[in-house]
Specification:
The complex is a heterodimer of chains A (about 600) and B (about 170). With about 600 residues, chain A is of the alpha/beta class. Chain A has helices at about 25-30, 85-100, 115-120, 160-165, 200-205, 220-225, 255-265, 275-295, 310-315, 330-345, 365-370, 390-400, 420-425, 430-445, 490-500, 530, 535-550, 560-570, 575-585, and strands at about 5-10, 15-20, 55-60, 60-65, 75-80, 145-150, 175, 185, 210-215, 230-235, 270-275, 300-305, 355-360, 385-390, 465-470, 480-485, 510. Chain A has a five-stranded mixed β-sheet with strand order 2-1-5-3-4, sandwiched between helices. Classes of the chains: A alpha/beta (about 600), B alpha+beta (about 170). The interface between A and B is medium-sized, with 19 and 18 residues.
Chain lengths: ~600, ~170
């Protein structure tokens, strides 16, 4: 590696040395100085557009304002980040943004967690109406099942646009028109429901204001909870337990399974179940499907199907590759299917009276819940309402539940027991690892020692991971399974291109739409860019899941006694006709235009 | 300016498509030539409707929203075809101070379309332009190149209505 050239500069009188090419903003952080930003998303949106990060650059006695997020350092530079001129400029910029902003701050979904609001407070923008004048008016786009776009709250930072194109390879939103009419929208002003949007919700997580938000289904759930006829049950996805604490000010990566269960009981859910159980069922089906397809060389590689954003992506952008996708429903879908068939029957409930809620770190799950290609009970949705982690936090606050005081609760039987393999579904590589734990033991007939249970090659937050897994067969041969794991659709696209060109020969591929997997899903608690730019929240939350896995008594899906009982008492064996009927689905090719 | 999308049905011919495909092929995959291709497409079709923008997006492997974003950013790109009668009202300085805006607004109201748009029957299109060099006659409008001067909103409306009655 070539030696890095260091550049010396002065920031607010402090001497700093940083490698050549560093931006003023990152150099300032090295000196312990935080420069505020709005449009800047590290490595994703670096366009110097919003002008909040301006600092003074002194050249030959004259001082000029520059955008610290993009301006590179140079030798002998003298920078002032907090001069009166800088503070005044930032304040004016904020006032100009407010002049064309729908100030619904009292009722806005992002109130208290809005980056624009936080900066206005920080800079003491007392006169929010200084530049009142023309205000753009836009209709709210509520066409999609998972989100709203209110352009009157948009500050045109382009963070959503950058994420949609660079991270998710979709590019369905962009800036239309120009000048005061500039607005973020889809081609030909179509609604999000009418373009190839995969509902991943990464744009919502990237939005600094309330311009983008999930469709709020909390009222629908409250209504069901207040309906005496309904049996309202809830399942909670693996990632929610490592996210929900953040809604109540806990540190990123807090594992709050017990508190979460208690809060759900207090909200009035009749049964509180664990999606981890359904994830174990998914593994039983998916691992069986894989081994069958592997033996028959049937449309390899097989890809996972748990991520609804990913499924919608391949339906839109690579429909010709759809036969590669596993037909197994996602854990959410499997849970809903079982709840409305097996469980309703067992409890003596009319399936139409079962109201099945899921708490998910995901906005695409709202879309998935509306898919009717193959529901378990004809005419009934498998899932009645999907709550993102954020909505769940909202419900808990609204009902006056004191989070800090909550005791540790436990899931209900029979779908409350999940294995460690189920819990790691929330992190990229987790589904692969869970499937490998089961596939290995099924194929080899040997039990993996506990210290060999961690398939570390498929862990980590890299966009694409590859590994060759050797499984010994009882006949003394070795099966080598070529696996790949991708998260973030731009990486999924790369994998699909390799599959198409034949450049890579994988057997089994796990794909998650969101970078880092569900822990970083579109329904997660929103951390401001200031945190996301400098903290890998995907890694911290994933580590919490792996800790959870390590501490669980059962770490293999096929050893979950509730799963075994489910097969013995209802489905027969994995891949049986009944399992196919209830736990598998079909996909539909979609047109991009 | 906000550009409205035309609802007039697309009437492209195979010959036009062939020409556009040749232009796209000529870029050899260079996506930075998007604007050039869009200009050529507008030469071929007269405007850039949905169908044409999809051809460009697919042909050049760029997102449709990107094509549309460029088409709505630059004044040179039209989303509506030119009408049988191409009405262009000068909003240049001389015409403007003599009341061209009121003329424009009246014509716009009469035709039921805004600048850059075309009536659903394809008969009229309307544009606002800058100085046509007939300041002595301000305010002026041009219809298919013919200049009408010393207009009032009423006069302009009469002219439009008499053409519409043809």
């Amino acid at each position: 590696m070539s030696e890095e050239k260091l550049v010396n500069l002065k920031i607010n009188g402090i001497d700093v040395s940083v490698p050549e090419g560093t931006t003023v903003l990152l150099a300032a952080r090295k000196a312990g100085i935080r420069i505020p930003t709005l449009c800047w998303l590290k490595d994703i949106n670096e366009i110097g557009a919003c002008r909040i990060c301006v600092v003074e650059n002194e050249v030959k006695g004259a001082r000029k304002l520059i955008a610290a997020c993009t301006f590179p350092v140079s030798e002998g530079m003298v920078i002032y980040t907090n001069s009166p001129k800088v503070i005044e400029s930032r304040k004016t910029t904020l006032q100009l943004l407010l002049s064309n902003h729908k100030m619904e701050c009292l009722s806005c979904v992002r109130s208290g967690n809005c980056e624009l609001q936080a900066l206005c407070k920080e800079y003491g923008v007392e006169d929010a109406h200084r530049f009142d004048g023309f205000r753009s008016t836009w209709a709210i786009d509520d066409s999609a099942p998972h989100m709203y776009r209110d352009n009157e709250k948009c500050i045109l930072c382009r963070r959503c646009v950058a994420v949609c194109s660079k991270t998710q390879a979709c590019s369905v939103i962009g800036a239309n028109d120009r000048g005061i009419d500039t607005h973020i929208a889809c081609a030909f002003e179509r609604g999000l429901a009418d373009v190839a949007c995969v509902s991943c919700g990464q744009c919502i997580v990237a939005c600094p204001t309330g311009a983008l938000s999930e469709k709020d289904d909390t009222q629908k759930v409250f209504d069901a909870l207040n309906d005496p006829k309904k049996h309202v049950i809830i399942q909670t996805a693996p990632s929610v337990r490592v996210q929900l604490g953040e809604e109540f000010g806990m540190p990123i990566g807090s594992l709050v399974t017990g508190k979460m269960v208690s809060s759900l009981r207090m909200l009035g859910f009749e049964k509180v179940f664990d999606t981890n159980f359904a994830a174990d069922m998914t593994i039983m089906e998916e691992a069986t499907e894989f081994l069958k397809r592997y033996k028959e060389k049937d449309n390899l590689p097989m890809t996972t199907s748990c991520s609804p954003g990913w499924v919608k992506y391949i339906e839109y952008y690579y429909p010709e590759l759809l036969p590669h996708v596993s037909s197994t429903k996602s854990p959410q879908g499997i849970f809903g299917s079982i709840a409305k068939t097996y469980y309703a029957e067992k409890m003596g409930w009319d399936p139409a009276d079962v109201f099945c809620v899921s708490a998910m770190p995901c906005t695409a799950k709202k879309f998935e819940a509306q898919r009717y290609e193959h529901t378990a009970v004809k005419g009934l949705p498998d899932i009645d309402a999907v709550l993102t982690t954020r909505e769940l936090g909202r419900m808990i606050r609204k009902m006056g539940i004191m989070w800090d005081e909550l005791p540790e609760g436990e899931f209900d039987a029979p779908f409350g027991l999940g294995s460690g393999a189920g819990t790691i579904f929330g992190a990229t590589g987790g589904v692969m690892e869970a499937a490998l734990r089961t596939a290995y033991e099924v194929v080899s007939g040997q039990k993996l020692p506990d210290d060999k249970l961690d398939f570390t090659a498929v862990r980590g937050t890299q966009g694409i991971k590859e590994a060759d897994i050797d499984i010994p067969t009882p006949e003394g041969e070795t099966l080598t399974i070529h696996v790949a794991v991708a998260s973030g659709l731009v990486n999924a696209k790369q994998i699909l291109e390799w599959i198409k060109s034949g450049e890579k020969n994988y057997d089994f591929v796990e794909i998650m739409a969101c970078p880092g997997g569900c822990v970083n899903g579109g329904g997660q608690p929103i951390q401001p860019a200031d945190v996301r730019n400098f903290t890998d929240i995907r890694k911290i939350r994933a580590e919490a899941l792996y800790r959870d896995d390590l501490g669980l008594p059962i770490r293999r899906s096929h050893e979950n006694p509730d799963v075994t009982a489910m097969y013995e008492g209802f489905f027969g064996e994995p891949g049986s006709e009944k399992a196919e009927e209830i736990m598998h689905t079909v996909y539909i090719p979609r047109k991009q235009y | 300016m906000h550009k409205n999308v035309s609802k007039i049905p697309f009437k492209g011919t195979p010959e036009q498509k062939e020409k556009l495909m040749a232009v796209i092929a000529g870029t050899n995959g260079d996506k930075s030539l998007l604007m050039h291709v869009m200009q050529e497409a507008q030469e071929i079709y007269g405007y850039l409707p949905y169908e044409v923008q999809v051809m460009i997006a697919e042909g050049m492997d760029v997102p449709l929203e990107k094509v549309f974003g460029v088409a709505t950013f630059y004044a040179q790109f039209a989303l509506s075809p030119k009408g049988e009668y191409d009405v262009s009202i000068c909003l240049g300085t001389a015409c403007y101070v003599r009341g061209a805006q009121a003329v424009f607004d009246e014509v716009s109201k009469t035709l039921g379309i805004g600048a850059g748009e075309c009536t659903p029957d394809g008969k009229f299109s309307l544009d606002a332009c800058r100085c046509v060099g007939a300041c002595g006659l301000a305010p002026v409008m041009m219809i298919n190149g013919e200049v009408y001067g010393r207009l009032t909103p009423e006069k302009a409306k009469e002219i439009i209505e008499s053409i519409a009655a043809k």
